[in-house]
Amino acid sequence: MSEPTAKWTYVQAWERSAKVLGVQIEGPVRVTVSPDVVLEAEMLVQGFGARRGTLVFELTDRYPPFFDLLHKQGLTASSFGPYRDGEVCSLADLLDVLGDWGWCGEGADPSWLITIDAEGWAQPSDFYQVLLAKLQAPQWHGQNLDALWDSITGSGINGLEPPFAVRIFNTARFSPEMNAFMERVEIIFREAADAGVPVALHVWP
Asked: How far is CA 109 from CA 12, 116, 129, 204, in A?
């Protein structure tokens, strides 16, 4: 009879992509939230989502009652999986997750995480002016979606190439036309990620 194999861990699933991005992960971890409650998480992703990081659990309803206690310790929590034996978290998937959580640790955002304040944007040219500067695009870069697609899916155009994640805030006052434009931008990023390009975009009000 063969020996049972060890469980494929969340750290094993994430470690390759995390190394590319310079993200610190560890697991499994135990966190004491009260004298009589110890939570066992699959992994801690340091510095993202909260000051100390995000605890990752298998799909469970065990941790939500303790969110406030976790926050007092500089932590938050999320759940995934479980991962199948040998399954890995792709670089595009990890960018999507971390772009959603955001950097909350000490120091500046990682170089691959682009955070943009969209307050005052009224037309697509406002978007292109800021994003293209962040991507270190050449002056001749076109301000249209076809050119954006070419530069994020190709190589040798922008100074900042994938992998990267973009976080855009303060869109609540956008006009219907600007919201429609941003929806098309989100489609561009989503289709690029589906094609295997490690990029992600998150837009918040």
From this structure: 25, 12, 21, 18
Q: 142 pairs with which residues across the strands?
A: none
Q: CA nearest 49: which of 23, 20, 27?
A: 23
Per-residue DSSP letter, 64: G
Q: pTM for the whole thing?
A: 0.90
pLDDT, position 7: 66
Mean pLDDT, the chain, integer: 93
Give the integer Cα–Cα distance in Å for 118 and 130: 9
Hunting for tokens 């155009």 — which residue is that?
Answer: 157
In angstroms, rounded to a whole number, what is the distance separating the alpha carbons of residues 89 and 18?
9
Residue 112: CB partners within 8 Å, gap ≥ 6?
A: 21, 95, 163, 164, 165
22, 46, 47, 52, 172 from 106: Cα distances, Å: 14, 10, 7, 9, 28
Cα distance between the two ends of the chain: 58
The neighbour count for residue 62, using CB atoms within 10 Å, is 14
Phi, psi of 176 (to 5 degrees): -55, -35
Taking each helix axis from N to C terminus, what angle separates 10-21 and 91-101, rounded to the nearest 10 degrees?
Answer: 80
**What is the helix (H) or strand (E) element at residue 8, kind and residue range?**
none
